[in-house]
Each structure stands twice: as C-alpha cells, then as structure tokens.
Description:
The structure holds two protein chains of two kinds.
Chain A: H1 4-9, H2 18-25, H3 34-43, E1 48-51, H4 56-71, E2 76-79, H5 85-94, E3 99-103, H6 104-111, H7 120-128, E4 132-134, E5 144-149, H8 150-156, E6 172-174, H9 176-180, H10 185-192, E7 199-201, H11 204-212, E8 218-222, H12 226-230, E9 233-236, E10 248-253, H13 258-265, H14 273-286, H15 289-296, H16 311-345, H17 348-363, H18 366-373, H19 383-407, H20 411-420, H21 424-435, H22 437-454, H23 467-476, H24 479-507
Parallel strand pairs in A: 1-2, 6-7, 6-8
Antiparallel strand pairs in A: 3-10, 4-10, 5-8, 5-9
Chain B: E1 3-14, E2 17-28, E3 32-36, H1 43-50, E4 58-63, E5 66-67, H2 73-76, E6 80-84, H3 95-105, H4 110-124, H5 140-152, E7 158-162, H6 170-187, E8 190-195, H7 198-204, E9 207-212, E10 215-220, H8 222-227, H9 232-246
Parallel strand pairs in B: 3-8, 3-9, 6-7, 7-8
Antiparallel strand pairs in B: 1-2, 1-4, 4-5, 9-10
Helix pairs in contact in B: 3-5, 4-5
Amino acid sequence: MNSLRPRLVRRDRSEPDGRLARRAKSGTFLPVFLILIAGVSLASAKPIVIGSKKFTESYVLGEIARRALNDANVATEHRQGMGGTIILWQALRGGQIDAYPEYTGTIAQEILRNGHQLSFQEIRDALGKFGVGMTEPLGFNNTYALVMRSSEAQRLGVRTISDLRKHPELKIGLTHEFLDRQDGWHPLRERYGLSQQSVIGIDHALGYAALANGSIDVKDAYSTDAKIEENGLVVLEDDLRFFPKYDAVFLFRSSMSPDSINALHRLEGTLDENRMIHLNMEAERTKNYTFAANLYFEDDGRSANSLGETFQHKLARWTLRHLELAGFSLLLSVIVGIPLGIFASRGGIIGHGILGFASMVQTIPSLALLALLVPLPFFGISVRTAIAALFLYGLLPIVRNTASGLQDIPRSLRESAIALGLSPATRLWQIYLPMASRSILSGIKTSAVINIGTATLAALIGAGGLGEPILSGLNLNDNVTILQGAIPAALLALVVQWLFDGLDRVLIPKGLRL
Amino acid sequence: MSALVKLADVSKRYADAIALHATNLSIERGKTTILIGPSGCGKSTLLRLIIRLIEPDSGSIEFNGEPITPDTIGALRRRIGYVIQEGGLFPHLTARANVLLMARHIGKSENEMRNRLVDLCDLTRFSTTLLSRYPVELSGGQRQRVGLMRALMLSPELLLLDEPLGALDPLVRAALQKDLKEIFARLQQTALFVTHDLAEAIYFGDEIVLMHDGRVVQKGSVTDLREKPADPFVSEFINAQRGVTLT
C-alpha cells in the first residue's frame, strides 16, 4: 500500500510555461505582482502546446516535437507528463493541447475502444471524425511487454508469457493504467490462462525498484524502455501474439497551422527502436529531456541554450506559478468562505449544511477531487482546475473558523450590541467580525499553509508549480530533483506562516491583542 | 405620576419552564424601581422583555403610551439605556469608541459628541485620560463607569440596569452605588434596576418590586415590604438578608 502514495503524486507532471519563464527572466518575479502577472499571462496569445504522458519516452518525444516546431518558427511549449491516455486525449479534443505522442495500439484500444484490430488507415479515418490528425509511424514499435529479472527467469525456466502458467506463486506488479486497459492485464490473463493471485498496482518507475528488491517478480514495461537492459531484466515473449502493434505517432488537432503539421510530418520514419532506447537511456542518465531530445537533432547539447533553463529560472518559474495557484485559490476561499461562515454561525439547517458540505469536500482525496473536476466543461487540464480544487480545500478552515469565531462571542456582548440599537449590518461589521478576527485570520492562515502544500499536486494536471520537480524527481528516482521542489515548498509555507503572523498585528484590533 | 413603561399581562415561557407568568407592572417616571428576588425569579427576563432581547408570548408592553413592537423597538432602543454586569464593553474598541459607538452610528456631530463625552466623564467620575484605553486595560469599576456612560450617551428616558454591580468587590461597589445614586438624582433618571441584594435595593429603591417564581409577589417601599408582607415569602426573603443588611 505504500506504493500507492508516490503513485498518486506521480500521475503526471508539467513543464515549461514559456510565458511565465520569460517573465521570470525579465526579473519581475516578486509575489507582489503575482496577480497582475497571472492575469496578463492568462490573457496573452496561445502558442502551440505539446502534451506528453508521464513516462520518459513520452517526455523525450514531446521535447523532440517542441524543438521541431520551434525550428520551424512556431512558438511552442511543452506540458510534460500530464497523465495517462484519457487525460491527454481529452486535453487534445478540448484544445488545451494541440499535439502529443501516442501509440497506434493505444489509439485503437483505449481511444477508439475497438474490439478488433484496426488497420492504420482505419485508425486515421476514425480520428478524422474528431478533428484529430495522425502522422505516419515515427519508426519504432513500443509494445507492452512483461518483464522479469533475468536470473529469476533462468532459474524458473520462464521464457514466454505462457510459461508463467507453471508458476502461480509469482508476484505481479502492474501500472494502474495497464491493470485497467482493454488490452491490459485482464484480457491478457484470460488469453494466457494465468492464475497468479498476487497482483498489485504500482507506479511504473517504482515498479522497477520493487522488481529489483524482489517485492514483485513480474511487471509490465514498454519494449523500448531503457530500464530493461539497465536493470538486468528480460522481456517475456508474447507467444500468443496478444499485444497489438504500438507504433509511435503524433496525434494533432487538424486545425493546427500547416507549418506545425508539416514540422510533425518531418519526424515520420526517423526514429528506430535502437535510437529510441538510446535517447531514453540518455534522458534517464542526464535527467534532462531537452538534452536527450537535442541528441535526436544531432546536437551535442553542450551550448547553454540547448541545456534548457538555468536552475534559478526554473525555480523562479515554479515558485511564481506555485504562488499564483495558492494565492488565487486562497483569495477565492476568503471571498466565499467568510460569508459562508457567517451563515453557518447562525446554525439551523443551512448552517449545518454549509459546515457539512465544507467538511465533506475536505474528505475527498485531493487527487480524486482533481480527477472529478477534469472532465467537467470549463475545467479540463488547466490552471483553472487546480485553482478550483485548491479553493474547495481552502474553504473548510475559513468557514469553520469564521463560524466558531462568531459563535464564541459572549451572549452578553451580542445582546449589548442589539440593545444599543445598532443595525444588523453595523453589528456584523463593527462588532462581531472584528471580535472574531483572530479566529477568522487563523482559519485563513491554516488555509494558506494547506494550499501551499496541496498546490504541489497541481502538477498532476499540468498546472505547474513546485510539484513539477517533485513529480519529475519521483519519475526519475532522483532525490535531488524531488528536493528542488520539496525544500522551496516547505520554505514557502514557513514564509507564508510568518507573513500571516505579521498580518495578525495589522488586522486584529489592538484591544484583542493586549 | 405617569408611568413611562407599562406591562399588561406579559408572559414568557421557555421550552419547559415558565419564566414569567402573566404580569402587570408600571415603571414610574423619574423614579428608581428595583426588581429584586432570588436567582431565576424572572427579574432579568422582565428587563430583557422591555428592551426586546426576547419576545413575549403574550401581553403588551407600552413605552410612553406607545406599544413596543418589533417595528418600533429599533427607534425605541435609542431612548433606552442598557447596562449589564462588567459593562458589556466591546473588547476591540477603546473606552471612547465604546461610549460613542451609537452616537457615531446615527451621525451626531463630532463637536456634540466631544462635549457630551466630557459631561459624562464628569458625571460618572471617569478620568478623560483613560478614554483611550481598551477594556482589558481598565479595572472592573472603571469598565462599569464606561458602560454607564455608553448607556447614558444619548440621554435615554429609561435606564435598564441588570445587576450592574454584581461582579465588583465591596469597596468599589460601595463607591459606585453612591455615584450611581447621585447620577440618578441629578438626571432625575427613570431607572429599572435589577439586583438580588436587599441592601442595594433599599439604598436605591423608591419602589421595590419583589419577584418569586416568575411572579411579582409585592410592590411597594421597603417599609411596606417589611411591615405589610403580602406573602410569607416576602418576610422570608427580607429576614434572610436582614442579618447582612442591618448589622
């Protein structure tokens, strides 16, 4: 079960938002201008957006596409590791992204949900109906495969998937996507008549570690995965030809400019399996997808530019986005939460309903809340969704503290205010709210700190922030990268806490602080 | 002598207990009327009904000849001062802001307010240098004086006091009793004063209203109560406190 948590954090991640990056470079990354900058950046013209799934090869292909389009003078950005197939497909149809790398087998099984094998042309025709185009194959077939430790496979005499039937005691660990896919575990097990009882869902990258230490014996993999060779694993032969072909292609919106479409077409047939494995290995070795992608263009990646942004710029961009996410959502929580808290303080059905709703929202796991919002119109894979989710999370502390702060005002003082003849609005603004200010502010403070922490999850739906390096580091099993996000996020939480302590002195009336 | 407040068949019941049986009572103009009785006898309920912090179940209350209703109470509250134990001051406002709160709310001029404040400080023997302090920075007696100034700010026709001196130590209490009595006399203030202390009642009361179990048992001067008790409870109540009050 331990494996579940990292898995949740790692569903996907996002990368450079060029607009913010440019702003960060121009040196105006003061939190004070946060809202202004965010407003401007959201309003500016949209460049082409390339998406990618949350695994190394997809990142590299996404970077290659970005570079190809940039070389064709098309302004392009790459949102890395946005999640699984369905999220990318929805984002493509919804226009949040314009293109992303995909595999023919996945398109047939997961997107078109077609039971029988489709020809390449049939797939292309079916996609056309959605206004989506597809390039010719890029040149390699990255099919699914089951892998084992070579030593173990040799000892047990397992060479093919059929051989697994003889060893029902083997422990199997599969990615969640593979567990659920129509061409995944369940039909595979039926086809081969496998009887293994121990089957768990585990994140792809963590699965390799689990395989190495013997927690699991068999896992799913992609045939071009660099880790197969690195970790001394062996691919079990698909002797019943269960897995369809997974030719890599780019899917794109047909409405994209001809220049961009042509740039993608130029990538067709240029990447064979060996080359892709090499690029994947380089990406994992250097922890730098841009570098690996540049190798494709026979660029040695030594020039400063091709190495991507400097760490400072990345940190500034992450932090800015993080503050934007947490700041906007907190603002909304305050604007909505205080009035709700005032209503809630009056008790009755409405009051209990409000507190019940806010508490209920808090019990929904953050990832589930994001997943629930993504399919809704207006939300989708966007910063909006992240802000909406954070806003909902931030509500409860503010609503509850506002309500309890107001309820804690002694009855004698409430009655004094009434007996004086003050109007209800005056009582609220001049007496009750100032008296509850300490409690309300501490609710806002709690919300702010929670938001800073939870905003790291926004990277899951490509909204960026300090969650980006955390997810990326988890994917690469690279603690340094994880800390690049985790440490600034923790510091940010401390700074926010400290700022709010200062704010107490300004906003809480002096008479309540003596 | 005309009545400023008139209660006719006013009653109040909470979920399972009667707080006030149908009661008739007049509060005379220019006099201090004392409501006295043991805890839970309904004296505070009666006060709160007049200022309409609670709604009566039956009967009517008239103020200066006009009935007090939810529609008229807003304006009437400005003509009634209300003082509670500890003063009921708002902790986030200075003494000055507490006193001026209502005057500011209805838009009195700064000049008028300043003059009135000086007069009130004089009247209640409250040092003007303490006006900028917050309630926590004041002693119990000082807080009570500020509470009194706040209630008197708009020169109310009726002053309601709900055990205003209950939480004070004996010396402060005695000083405030003396000052309060002088103030009432100077302003010819109509006051309705709730206490459970017979000595205090005798010290202030032109008219004493003794209550028990949600009913008025007897109304009259302390001599009436002592010499012509309407009920055995009257003697019992007076005798119970005699030891303290008369020695």
